[in-house]
Design a protein that fits this description.
single chain, alpha+beta, DNA-binding, DNA repair
Length: about 190
DNA sequence: TGGACGATTGACT
DNA sequence: GTCAATCGTCCAA
């Protein structure tokens, strides 16, 4: 059993540490496994967060405490996965924006209807490749059929920090993190000014 | 109870 | 580069 106490860290730190960790999705006899390469931090005091206006039926899972999954439907089409972090009762989470396939690539390609980096290089794509749906919202990621596997943190020099993608509110905040060495990052650009 | 709105993607010009 | 798809959620009425 993995120790997930580190998910109780402040959301930006948790978002950094999720880089390099793995997700294992079991579908009957099939096992799909990916390595997380891109994340975004969302906290309750953040106008861009689904929890900004408080607890609702949709975002309930975001308040269940660290180690739960929060899944939302984007544009009525795409299921996107978050890992809830921070303190129980506070709506904080990390959007998993992209990952690298490690195991079960063929099944992911079938689920996606295409291959290459387009398999998992975006939040909606990853959701489809791992057969994520709204039913998994609130799921405990210590358990099958969707498990988070801890891995050592990436070296500081490998982590690129940028503004978040596709939001209109609080768009200037540097709360996106990705692995510089991965080819599965969704958008390369917008490095934070130095 | 209805209408506007996305933490996106893929097809097309 | 532009743009439509598609539906759960939220809030105004």
């Amino acid at each position: 059993m993995d120790d997930f106490s580190w998910l109780g860290l402040p959301v930006e730190e948790a978002a950094r540490r999720l880089l390099g960790c793995e997700l294992e999705r079991t579908l009957g006899p099939e096992t799909l496994r990916v390595r997380i390469v891109e994340t975004e931090a969302y906290s309750q005091d953040d106008p861009a967060s689904h929890t900004f206006s408080g607890r609702t039926a949709r975002n309930e899972a975001m308040f269940l405490g660290p180690g739960h999954a929060y899944v939302y439907l984007s544009y009525g089409i795409h299921s996107c996965l978050n890992i809830v972090v921070g303190r129980e009762g506070v709506g904080e989470g990390v959007l998993i924006r992209a990952a690298e396939p490690l195991e079960g690539r063929d099944t992911m390609a079938l689920l996606r209807g295409r291959g290459g980096v387009a398999l998992t290089n975006g939040p909606g794509k990853l959701g489809q490749a791992l057969a994520i749906d709204l039913g998994l919202s609130g799921h405990d990621v210590a358990l099958a059929p969707l498990r988070l596997l801890r891995r050592p943190p990436l070296g500081e020099e490998r982590v690129v920090v940028t503004t978040r993608i596709g939001i209109t509110k609080a768009a200037e905040l540097p709360r996106r993190f990705y692995d510089r060495d991965s080819g599965y990052v969704s958008v390369r650009a917008r490095p934070v000014a130095r």
